[in-house]
Amino acid sequence: MKSILSLILSLSFSTLMLGYDAREDISQNIKGRVLDQQSQMPLPGVNVLVEIKGQTYGASTDFDGYYKVESVPTGRINIQFSFIGYQNITMNNIELLGSKELILNVSMRESTETLDEIVVSAKTEKTRTQNERVNVSGRTFSIEESQRFAGANNDVSRMAANFAGVQRANDATNDIVIRGNSPFGLIWRLEGMDIPNPNHFGGIGATGGPVSMLNNNVLANSDFITSAFPSDYGDGISGVFDLRMRNGNYEKHEFLGQIGFNGFEFGAEGPINKERKSSYLLNYRYSTLGVFSALGIDFGTGTAIPQYQDLNLKLNFPSRKLGTIQVFALGGVSAIDFLDSENDEDEDGGFYSDDEDLRNRVNSGVIGASHQYFYSPKTYSKVSLAYSGIQNKTSIDTFNVDGTLSSAQYRQNFVRSNFQVNALLNHKFNVKHVVRVGAYITRSQYDLNDSAYRYDWDRFVNLRDLQGSTMMYQPYANWQYRFNDEWEMNTGIHTVITEKHHSIEPRWGMSYRPTAKSSFNIGYGLHSQQANELLLYREEVLQDGSSVRPNENLDLVKSHHFVLGYQQNLGGNWNFKAETYYQHIYDAIVSVLPNSYSSVNSGSFDFRIPDTAQNAGLAYNYGLDLTLEKFMDRGFYMLNTISIFESKYRGNDQVWRNTAFNGNFVWNLVGGKEFVLSKPQAKSRKTLTVDAKVTLAGGQRYTPIDLVASIADGEAVYDNSRAFGEQYDPYFRADIRIGYKIAGSRFTQEWAIDVQNVTNQDNPFGQDFNAATGTIETTNQLGLFPMFLYRITF
After folding, report:
1. In the prediction, which pLDDT does 298 show?
2. How far is Cα 146 from Cα 644, in angstroms, rounded to an integer?
3. Coiled-coil segments, which residues (predicted)?
4. pLDDT band, residue 1 (cuts 50/70/90)
5. How far is residue 779 from each of residues 309, 343, 739, measured CA to CA in Å?
6. Are residues 438 and 420 in contact, defined by beta-carbon separation less than 8 angstroms?
7. Which domains does the chain have, with CATH numbers?
8. Distance CA 77, CA 100 (A)
9. In a designed cystine with 138, which of 99, 134, 230, 778 is the match (CB 3.0 to 4.6 A)?
């Protein structure tokens, strides 16, 4: 650790000496591209006006929509884009650093009423989405938010848990519960393509993990949608992360180095061909948790040390005649060993080990390419290809009292890969009518092999030994009609076609904006999702050695979403939003036996997988989400969200119960203040940031352990007749982040400490049965947990 601190200090002092020139005024360039939002054509002649410290700087876009405002003093800037016939866009309090050019790409919306132009400011645009077809339950988030929010760990999932209607499933992973839904219902999309779980140590079919592979340093402004998403999304019933990677700097090479709890990071970006404005962007990370473990910091895995590394990459090749070609890649490898045999008798091996040695390896990645081509100023197509895969290998061994291996208990090697094609055609008839049609075609291949020791048969048996492939077709269409600048409607249809089933799903949304500061929104959607692979392809081995697949004919789980919302800008960068919703889930997967199992609880501590399942379950979620937000202004921001909801389900025992995720309420308060410590004439800009977060939520639901039966069996036996009938005390957690930044002309350095659960609150994680003592023990979630960060950009 001393060597790491020495490295940080030496880097800091060397850059302090090299990065700041007393003869040099600190300024930087602002550049980017402006497009028509509906046709994606470049807009020439757009006026770009930058304001900072009472001074103004300007430029206009060229024939290809590019602009460049040069030599702007660093600090917090306001920038406005204006063009005749289009709604103006104003962005406030954007940070400009001397060490890195600011690239802002903007899509402007053509006005239907050119004589009565509307100014659309960042106060309003921030609550809209990059996908212009979203009317309800959507929000755009920025890189700065994922870096700034206390407790976010530079992770978009943990950041999104602060939004209304969203909560963390637990502290150990970044799984998120959206409006009472299972985390497994989330859609991950990157560069327009569906991707597998983008998290280290994530399982097949899961959507979260302890550490994200997605590096927020490479992301552009992206969308998060929590309900009734439009017709271009499918195979998910809870929400969508629609992520975009930014393009690298097309004129200048820039670099980033970072050392923190999440790992050692190196990033680079720059031009491939300056004249053609092609660029590259990459970021590599290697884990550092071994160092923190040596310091005695407990991060919830006992004596096990997670190891991982990941790579993010994007290449951009624009062309005026041939269109734009882009290549992207995301990949990671991870490993962890829970070796209880190496622990002392009085040493806690963690919640996951119980006289067992568990080894887990996960490899996951995606590589893709896209080509966007313009047939005319109003028509373009985009064809994308992507290949993705995930491998999950696990072994479990038991051991004797002396630590020697007793027997191998379980072996698993699950491999799943997807080849996906997405083709779309977009046509803007005029300012009022825009039509988009497209299709996702996915070929999935699977090789699922696992085996377990059967004591009653005294031999190993295969649980699954399946190889095969499936096809899924998802054609969709969307029509956007703008009656005028106040009324807008998006209507569409999404279809899911598999080899055995299909679903036709209408989507509809409408917005009414009586003023520039208020809007009423309504949305509806029918959504569906295929069953989890581990359930769908489950194989049952009979006594004679033959096997059957009882669940291979399971239908899609379906869900109706209804949303009604209101939004009001209160002035002074304050914004209020309210949404009420109802969700009806049907064809949920339940057991053929009369018990409490349901797929809507996937991702909880209900690890049951029924031998034979059917689509006969029901569930519903309804609630109210309230948001009061102050966007960054004079160094201060705040996000206050309250969610009140109810989440119920019915298994095949015909009993209505709380779902595993029915906490009933969530309250989040996030805020921060930026203090400028340097004088206006100083040659480096020094800032101190203090950010804090408080979360109060209803306690986690759980199924109680039957103590008498557990003592008799020598292991935990759950009383599933009372499934999720108990609830822990309310969850409370407070986080605080303190950062210090020195921004010079050539280098920017940042130091930060993020202390999670600063009050060291004991929040229950789960219960287990201790066979040695014959008692039920409760394991808590993470206690007080400090995280450190050093970042340098140049």
Report:
1. 61
2. 25
3. none
4. very low
5. 29, 18, 32
6. no
7. 2-125 (2.60.40.1120), 158-793 (2.40.170.20)
8. 14
9. 134
